[in-house]
């Protein structure tokens, strides 16, 4: 079953496809984002704002979000909890 969460500015991702949600501040993550940009596998969902979270997807795509990783993770956990109750 697909679980969709809002990652900011009207953008939505499938939580079943997320491998990791990380902060963009470390050098390895910056390199990963740069490599994804060069390969054309980055999806920029920041609407021109500062990137605060990087979502690594199972399809080797990288999604950039202007929301904090904690916010996105909280939304994903809330979605899972609601589905478990149903």
Describe what you observe in this structure:
The chain has 86 residues and is α+β, with helices and mostly antiparallel strands. Helices cover 35% and strands 30% of the residues. The chain has two helices and six strands; from the N terminus they run βββαβββα. The strands form two sheets. A four-stranded mixed beta sheet has the order 3-5-6-4. Strands 1-2 form a two-stranded antiparallel sheet. Strand 1 and strand 2 form a beta hairpin. It is globular, with a radius of gyration of 13 Å. It starts with a strand and ends with a helix. The model has no long low-confidence stretch (mean pLDDT 94).
Descriptive labels:
two-stranded antiparallel ribbon, 4-stranded mixed β-sheet, alpha+beta, 86 residues, 2 helices, globular
β-strand number: 6
**Per DSSP, what share of the residues sits in E-state strands of 2 or more residues?**
25-35%
Sheet with the most strands?
Answer: 4 strands, mixed
Radius of gyration: 13 Å
Structural class: alpha+beta
Order of helices and strands: EEEHEEEH
Task: List the uncertain runs.
Answer: none
**Which bin fits the share of residues in helices?**
25-40%
Q: What sort of overall outline do the alpha carbons produce when their principal axes are compared?
A: globular
User: Can you count the helices?
Assistant: 2
> For the residues shown, what is the average pLDDT?
94
Strand order of the largest sheet: 3-5-6-4
């Amino acid at each position: 079953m697909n679980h969709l969460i809002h990652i900011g500015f009207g953008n939505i991702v499938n939580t079943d496809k997320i491998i990791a949600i990380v902060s963009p501040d470390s050098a390895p993550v910056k390199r990963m984002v740069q490599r994804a940009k060069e390969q054309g596998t980055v999806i920029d969902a920041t609407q021109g704002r500062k990137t605060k979270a990087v979502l690594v997807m199972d399809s080797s795509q990288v999604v950039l979000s202007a929301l904090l990783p904690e916010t996105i993770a909280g939304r994903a956990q809330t979605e899972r909890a609601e589905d478990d109750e149903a």
